[in-house]
Amino acid sequence: MKVTVIGATGFVGNHITNELAERNIQVTGISRNPHTSHKENVTYVAADVHDEAALSAVMKDSDVVVNAFNAGWNNPNLYNAFLDGSKAILEAAKKANVKRFITIGGAGSLLVSEGGPRIIDTFPQDTPFYPGAKAAVEFLDIIREEKELDWAFFSPAMEMHQGITTGRTGNYRLGTDYPVMDENGKNVLSGEDLAVVIADEVEAPKHHRVRFTAAY
């Protein structure tokens, strides 16, 4: 199996790349800058996500494309950069006739409760991460209209960041439109176990043209 990971050297993309490689899956990692691989089954390619032709050429012959693109949380133009980049990646995947497309979004589009607001609607618009979260929510709306690709949109747990030190447990519970809460009312997942979720989905697809989520 051949998998292309976009944003392969970022926090999320790096974990996904490592997990796939550990499963002996051939990975092509796309990042902004050249990167040297220390694993036989990982090859890195430097590419601009806005260059649809170049991206499409790299994606060609991939069984699955995993989009872990992040425009950078400190990017002053985060909203436009994330949304424009995500749309370009989607178009490149279509041009490459990719069989399977899995994209990592955010938790902001998850619903607080049945009939309730989305998580993003509970935060002030001047919250630092709001522009990126809003762009991810809007990209979900865009990809939901996609009829050509076999896509899946993954919303991570609300608490999924470098400060979560659980590591790789291999355990998680799946959900769809609502956060998966633990016994303490927390919605948590490590970067390593996010990678397990995505690698499991790559190897044994369960979600087709839907959004899903996971947490402990």
Q: Supply the CATH architecture.
A: 3-Layer(aba) Sandwich
What is the string of SSEs from the N terminus onward?
Answer: EHEEHEHEHEEHE
Q: What is the CATH first-level class name?
A: Alpha Beta
- Using only C-alpha atoms, the radius of gyration works out to 16 Å
Structural shape:
globular
Q: How is the main sheet built?
A: 8 strands, mixed
Counting DSSP E segments of at least 2 residues, the number of strands comes to 8
Helix content: 25-40%
Strand percentage, roughly? 15-25%
Q: Would you give the CATH topology?
A: Rossmann fold
Overall mean confidence score, pLDDT:
95
Task: Tell me the number of structural domains.
Answer: 1
Alpha-carbon distance between the two ends: 28 Å
Question: CATH H level: which superfamily?
Answer: NAD(P)-binding Rossmann-like Domain
Parts with pLDDT < 50 across at least 5 consecutive residues: none
Total helical segments = 5
Alpha-beta classification: alpha/beta
Question: Quick gist of this model?
Answer:
The protein is of the alpha/beta class.
Written description of the protein model:
The chain has one domain: Rossmann fold (3-Layer(aba) Sandwich). Helices cover 30% and strands 19% of the residues. An eight-stranded mixed sheet has the order 3-2-1-4-5-6-8-7, sandwiched between helices. α3 links the parallel β4 and β5. The chain is globular, with a radius of gyration of 16 Å. The mean pLDDT is 95.
